Amino acid sequence: MLDTVSAASKPMIEISGLRKSFGNFEALKSISLNVQEGEFFSLLGPSGCGKTTLLRLLAGFGEQTAGTIAIDGQDMTGRPANRRPTNMVFQSYAIFPHMNVEENVGYGLKRLKLDRQEEQRRVREALDRVELGALGKRRANELSGGQRQRVALARALVMRPKVLLLDEPLSALDKKLREQMQVELRHLQKAVGITFILVTHDQYEALALSDRVAIMFDGQVAQVGTPKDIYQNPVSRKVADFLGGMNFVDAEIAEENGVSLTLDAAGFGRVRAPKPQGYQSMGRQITLGIRPERLRVLWDDDQAEHQIGGQVIDRHYFGEVTQLIVEIPGFKAPLAVTETNDFGADDIPVGSAIRLAYDPDALVAMND
Amino acid sequence: MTLLRKAGASWLPIYAGLYLLFLYLPVLLLPVFSVNASAIPVFPLKGLTFDWYRSLAGNDALINALWNSLLVGVASALLATVLGICAARAITRYRFRGRRPMTAVIMAPLFLPEIIIAISLLMVAMQLGLGLSLILVIFGHVLICLPYSATVLISGFEGFDPSFEEASADLGETAFGTLTRVTLPILMPAIISSLLVSFTISLDEFIIAFFLSGSEPTLPIYIWGQLRFPAKLPGVLALGTLMLLASLLLLTFAEMLRRRAAKRTQLDGGFHA
Ligand SMILES: Nc1ncnc2c1ncn2[C@@H]1O[C@H](COP(=O)(O)OP(=O)(O)OP(=O)(O)O)[C@@H](O)[C@H]1O
Ligand SMILES: [Mg+2]
Asked: Where in the cell is the protein located (chain B) (predicted)?
């Protein structure tokens, strides 16, 4: 499933068996990952799962307890941060307060001993790239949060790294600016063609920006895949839950072959679903899931091939969509249904009977 | 009630004025009598003269003492600040065993009477058979300056984001380059304050210098020696006035430097787009 990227690309980062302990605490437990050249790759996971630790090991801050990291085919073990082909955008941006924007961006170039004109040209180019051309003489304390973020980006990009590492670069910005910067970040990455590794705990950010995403829990990678892949086919309840709402239904395994499972689930009847990654036969119980937006309200006499009936017990209005909580006879937990408000889902009274249509392909089997 | 408050409000500036006068009048008398034609410092003044100042210029013993004081002051300030930087860095950056006891040891001279420090150093010097010298004085001054310089520097280091140094390394700079291009410039305000505080403390320190300087008096020791001769008093007054002026200038200059550096490095405040 790693082969979603074109076959022509080569691995830029190869991580194998990487471990990191702080004292007795294992922050990373045997991570193996490949990232392709030119890929926008995200590390997604809840707070404390080890994203920053992994990113810092890539940058050369701290030493791994075991395992190896290779960048562009070269083993990085024992190589300090200042001699790695990576650059980092820090969460705090770390803009040098005693320098202006141009001096900040030119900081790393000074060591390359370029001639003055070439150095200035590269600083200009980097500043123009992040649309900060006019602010070269400003100091760090004269910049807004979004501007600082751009300076940090320019300062890293001007070094032309093989890999750009970004640790939650947008988390300090307000919602509006964050969304704007997400779009710009994506454009920037396409324009420069550098491999980006983005750390985030915002699932929408990861889904919207990345070519591929690695979801981490407790120092381990739970799943790697394209945004669509991991959203539609989460391997476990945990992954599904982290990527947005998911209805879970208990199911019983009726039949099993090489790639798929035939299941019996109350209400949905007999369904067939692909085996989740890493599936191990463990008894006859398994969890089936369906996303709230994959359930559709059937109005009046509408009919669908696959439908299920219940009663609305609660309703949440979110502006463009409404979420209905529907109790289905025989289900342990009620189903959440997300429906756009075009047809008046926001007017469905609590307590009314309702029928829901679903596509059996939208049902996914998951490990626990 | 309001009447009382009103009365209080109008009396407060007067009280404050009297208080300041009481504090600073003696200091203000110094320049006044230093240009008085009479050798005896009493009113009424006898007339204007700059003779006392002129007599200072040709006084080799005085210039020697001044030189000694400057030497001791600069050396103590530099040493105390370098040691203070090491201590502040260790205390703010690393969590190690013995961090608290170490802090206490650095701060201890603050609570020890100087005379105790002076006598102990004298005893150590005698035991080791070292002759009395300015080096011993510098040693003693570093000891008493360290609590002040460490305090100033620790508060400077506490506001220092470690990711500045990581960002520098990430951009290809070596550890030494990071120190000179990032760490020291950002901490400059604290370093200047520390140098200044230490220099001032050393410059007017008397007891330790008295016990340990031997045959090389510092300025306070020289002045104290002069006071035994009434005829020398006006010269001392002139010297005191010059020192007053010099320290005012030094303070102003250092504060300007510090403010400029602080303004440049302050992250908040200032203009926000
Ligand atoms: N220097 C350290 N010493 C001890 N424990 C550490 C250290 N750095 C990180 N940890 C621990 O390792 C775990 C992973 O930390 P990490 O910073 O990588 O999490 P994260 O996924 O980046 O979380 P967040 O989203 O909150 O930034 C945490 O439990 C943290 O407490
Ligand atoms: Mg983190």
From this structure: Cell membrane
- What ligand 1 atom has the least distance to the C-alpha of A216? 21
Of the pLDDT bands very low, low, confident and very high (cuts 50, 70, 90), residue B268 is: very low
Closest CB to A108 among B161, B172, B267? B172
Q: Is the ipTM of this complex over 0.85?
A: no
Question: Is residue A3 assigned to a domain?
Answer: no
**CB contacts, 8 Å: A91 with chain B:** 163
Over 50: is that where the pLDDT of A2 sits?
Answer: no
* A to B CB pairs, distance under 8 Å: 84
Q: What is the CATH number of the domain that holds A292?
A: 2.40.50.100
Ligand 1: does its nearest atom lie under 6 Å from the Cβ of A238?
no
The percentage of chain B sitting over the pLDDT mark of 70, rounded to a whole number, equals: 92
Task: Tell me, yes or no, whether A226 lies in a domain.
Answer: yes
Please answer yes or no on whether A139 and B264 come within 8 Å at the CB atom.
Answer: yes
Distance A47 CA to ligand 2 centre (A): 7
Q: Is residue A58 part of a domain?
A: yes
Q: B157 to chain A, minimum CA–CA distance in Å?
A: 14
pLDDT in tens, A282-305: 677 888 899 999 988 888 888 888
Domain that residue A329 falls in:
237-366
Give residue A54 CA to ligand 1 midpoint distance, Å. 10
Q: Quote the minimal CA–CA distance from A17 to chain B in Å.
A: 24
Percent of chain B clearing pLDDT 90 (strictly above)? 21
- The three state secondary structure string of chain A is CHHHCCCCCCEEEEEEEEEEEECCEEEEEEEEEEEECCCEEEEECCCCCCHHHHHHHHHCCCCCCEEEEEECCEECCCCCHHHCCEEEECCCCCCCCCCEHHHHHCCCHHHHCCCHHHHHHHHHHHHHHCCCHHHCCCEHHHCCHHHHHHHHHHHHHCCCCCEEEEECCCCCCCHHHHHHHHHHHHHHHHHHCCEEEEEECCHHHHHHHCCEEEEEECCEEEEEECHHHHHHCCCEHHHHHHCCCCEEEEEEEEEECCCEEEEEECCCEEEEEECCCCCCCCCCEEEEEECHHHEEEECCCCCCCCEEEEEEEEEEECCCEEEEEEECCCCCCCEEEEEEHHHCHHHCCCCCEEEEEECHHHCEEEEC
